[in-house]
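Postdoc handover notes: sequence design on the structure in folder B. Input tokens:
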């Protein structure tokens, strides 16, 4: 009786959704925008990579420059993180059938070679001898050390670089473009150092990805875990040994659970919280950059933070809501409607405006979740994720909605519309020429801070690829959980060696 009543209530509620959405998408316009902006974003990335990038004269071959902006702010450097997040977008392009682009192979190989050099540069964080130098966040574009004071070390750089090189290595192995030996000799020596760094230093404090606070950072922990899991499989494929990876990865996964705030139904991204709420794009970026298309949504309290997990969805709601009343551009964008989002509400850097890449990531997480639901054939609405779903489908109750049901279609369509809304926000505030800066003004939406930010372009490409259902290969999240309990603060000393790269057969053919 009670059950039937609830189902009726739910059905009625679902029936009214479409009209309650003020954000009616003009699909043609969004599709057209994506098409046009995709070529601009591609060119934008290529413009910022040495040595041939049109906007980065003086950059070493394969060096990814953060932005051509040389003042207010000066981003004319290469950050290990930004490069590590950009390279996978290039690898993904190679895997698309129509894009057998040898120029991209050349860039990827030059990137690898440049990183072999970069790893060995002694710097204010330390040197390669004991691995400490790998934590240095940024270098001059001519591959020399940057010696001024900075938030260092940043321990997300090594795992992101390892994952980027593993993505390229796996692409080469899968396509049979080059020999296992070439991958082992050109990529593995670099990857091995970065993985050793993670097994040795994961449990020591770090500056966060915004280079502001020191402690533990959720994003850093999440990408460290992913790197060790895929590093183990990569080593195996090459007949190499990923020393300590299998032993340490579960401990990092355990530590990842310690950021969850059950009361707030959100991730406290920095520990200590440094006087902030803890709601931060850090967690959204962690979800999209550790997305595994084959991972389950469950394993809630011992698993990875998959985009479709209840925790990641509850966190998405809390995060997006924290910006609704903050920015003038969000006027009229109430709960359940996509909004412009920044890094975190307390942000004042360069005005603390909304960011393109975080708004894109908010959409990307939902496209990821949609992919995972469709693959698994079911959407689980749990007590934890209920507030997220209620905003989109009022009256929905906890339960498992299978793809044969009307509710499944209703939820899926509502989430897709919500996800598109974030791209529509980006579309609205993208200037005529299509350049994506770092931020856009909170009141008038005009671009602010660094122009042509490489990471903004990469974020655009990955978000729109996911929208088309293009996903990266699995990195093994399925086999990685559940995390052990209790957590153990163990580490394994790494072995480091100056990477000596061999020759690229693919590269040689290109010359
Ligand atoms: C590298 O670039 C930095 C910053 O522009 C400059 O100060 C330095 O002299 C350059 N070093 C070399 C060897 O070109
Ligand atoms: C080290 O690991 C323990 C156990 O997971 C954790 O409680 C602690 O916060 C970690 N510290 C850092 C700096 O990662
Ligand atoms: C529902 O999901 C299952 C499991 O993924 C799949 O085999 C089936 O084709 C899906 N059905 C529809 C109608 O999408």
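Designed sequence:
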């Amino acid at each position: 009786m009670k059950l039937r009543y609830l189902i009726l209530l739910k059905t009625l509620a679902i029936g009214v959704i479409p009209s309650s959405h003020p954000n009616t998408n003009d699909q043609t316009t969004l599709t057209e925008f994506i098409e046009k902006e995709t070529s601009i974003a591609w060119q934008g990335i290529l413009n910022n990579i040495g040595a041939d990038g049109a906007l980065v004269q003086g950059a070493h071959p394969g060096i990814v420059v953060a932005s051509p902006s040389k003042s207010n702010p000066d981003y004319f450097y290469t950050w290990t993180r930004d490069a590590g997040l950009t390279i996978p977008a290039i690898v993904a392009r190679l895997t698309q059938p129509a894009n057998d682009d040898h120029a991209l192979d050349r860039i990827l190989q030059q990137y690898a070679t440049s990183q072999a050099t970069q790893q060995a540069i002694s710097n204010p964080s330390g040197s390669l001898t004991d691995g400490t130098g790998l934590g240095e966040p940024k270098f001059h574009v001519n591959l020399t050390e940057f010696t001024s004071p900075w938030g260092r070390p940043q321990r997300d750089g090594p795992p992101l670089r390892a994952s980027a090189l593993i993505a390229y290595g796996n692409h080469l192995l899968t396509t049979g473009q080059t020999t296992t030996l070439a991958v082992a000799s050109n990529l593995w020596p670099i990857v091995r150092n970065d993985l050793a760094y993670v097994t040795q230093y994961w449990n020591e404090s770090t500056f966060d990805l915004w280079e502001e606070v020191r402690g533990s950072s959720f994003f850093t922990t999440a990408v460290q875990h992913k790197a060790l899991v895929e590093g183990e499989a990569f080593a195996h494929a090459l007949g190499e040994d990923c020393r300590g990876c299998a032993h340490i990865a579960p401990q990092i996964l355990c530590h990842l659970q310690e950021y969850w705030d059950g009361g707030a139904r959100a991730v406290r991204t920095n520990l200590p919280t440094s006087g902030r709420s803890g709601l931060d794009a850090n967690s959204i970026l962690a979800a999209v950059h550790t997305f595994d298309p084959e991972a389950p949504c469950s394993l809630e309290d011992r698993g990875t933070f998959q985009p479709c997990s209840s925790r990641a969805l509850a966190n998405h709601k809390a995060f997006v809501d924290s910006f609704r009343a903050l920015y003038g551009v969000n006027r009229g964008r109430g709960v359940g409607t996509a909004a412009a989002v920044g890094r975190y509400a307390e942000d004042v850097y360069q005005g603390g405006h909304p960011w393109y890449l975080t708004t894109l990531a908010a959409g990307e997480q939902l496209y990821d979740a949609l992919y995972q639901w469709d693959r698994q054939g079911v959407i689980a609405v749990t007590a934890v994720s209920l507030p997220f779903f209620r905003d989109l489908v009022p009256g929905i109750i906890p339960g498992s909605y299978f793809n044969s049901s009307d509710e499944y279609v209703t939820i899926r369509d509502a989430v897709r519309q919500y996800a598109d809304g974030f791209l529509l926000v980006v579309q609205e505030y993208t200037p005529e020429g299509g350049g994506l800066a770092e931020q856009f003004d909170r009141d008038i939406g005009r671009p602010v801070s660094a122009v042509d930010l490489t990471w903004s372009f990469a974020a655009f490409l990955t978000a729109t690829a996911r929208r088309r259902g293009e996903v990266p290969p699995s990195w093994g999240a399925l086999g990685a959980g559940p995390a052990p309990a209790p957590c153990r603060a163990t580490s394994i000393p790494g072995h480091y060696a100056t990477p000596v790269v061999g020759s690229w057969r693919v590269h040689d053919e290109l010359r």
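Context for whoever picks this up: The chain has two domains: 1-7+21-29+265-472, 60-261. Don't rerun without checking with the PI first.
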